[in-house]
Design brief:
It is a single chain. The protein is an alpha+beta fold. Helices cover about 45% and strands about 20% of the residues. Strand 2 and strand 3 form a beta hairpin. Helix 5 packs antiparallel against helix 8.
Amino acid sequence: MKTDGSMKPDEILRLVDQIHLERKIDREAVFSIIEQALALAARKHGDGGEDSVVDVHIDRQSGDIYAYRDNLPLAPSEIAERIGAQTAKQVIIQKIRDAERDMIYDEYYPLIGSVVVGYVHRNDGRGNTTYVSLPDVEAILPYSEKIPRENFPREARIKALVIDVKKVGAKVKVVLSRYRALFVQRLFEQESPEIAEGAIEIVKVSREPGKRSKIAVVSHDPLVDLVGACVGARGARSRAVTEELGGERVDVVPWTQDASDFIRNALKPAEVDEIMLCTMLGRAIVLVQRDQRSLAIGKGGQNVRLASRLCDWDIDVMTREELDDLLEKAMRDFTSIEGVTEELADALVGQGFLSFDDLSVIEPSDLISLGGLTEEQVEAITERAEALARQEEEERERERRELKEPPLDGFGLSQ
């Protein structure tokens, strides 16, 4: 039935138009929100309690309100009495806030994994977290998701990867990152049409934020220059990515199914002589000339570390002389263990097992297949290898401590 209560039809229509224009919420959605709010208010203040079923319908043309409780129409006086204007408005406001939150959530949740552009609104007192203004929401860039040592002044334009979107109370929390490897990939997708269109695929990215990244790429179009499409004319595309990352170097690595070729590409600019793949351990022994060793390993081991992550192989870089010394020691060490024959030791070395520590983690089935051993023999060998590995580590630790101690004088006193 039509109401002549506290919320008049013309007020309802004006409220709908106002919310539609100011909050950019669809008019039908606004009508639905007001109907739900009025029904909720009626349930809370009705004689039937909150378990009663109250339905409210608003005429979209006239603004007239019709209400029913448990399928029975409410008289106009009952509606006015049970749905107070103040209560209804409070509920409507809360529903509108919920609708706005849901709209923002629906807008940003699909953007997880995408790059957005915003402006720095503020930094917290210690500069740990940066708050970024995006359309309709303020996002956060936590300290842990920043590139090390980067800071942003207020109003600075910023690109970042959306990594999380969730509802928190009446708001939406959007979390950003510039630290993740995926951020590098998305930047290249923006700079290279060939990548964006799928002619070139970024297979994997390994990254040490702020220092260096390696991206493995493969071409699905033989007419497309793989490296040129990523680097750009005179390096323009890769330079744009590097500048966005604050000077972080990015190496473009051609991907190939052949593991040895892929590892060789990943270790460039170092020249590799030979690669031996030890599949049982997932280890790749890379042989280089002495003058290429430091280049292959990189400063602080960075080059070989990034290459290992990119290729999913544990890469050991060494010279032929270093490998020969390791092989000789491994044969000597392994045959010192009861139950390990020269033939078994040779087979282990051939599979890339070069230390007691390697042998202690071998899969029992692999050791059985290599030496034709029983489970009891395998258990005894691995336990002994583990004990010897601990002993070697203790000796190395003692040597490190002794090197740090001050020298003694002739009386055994510290100088």
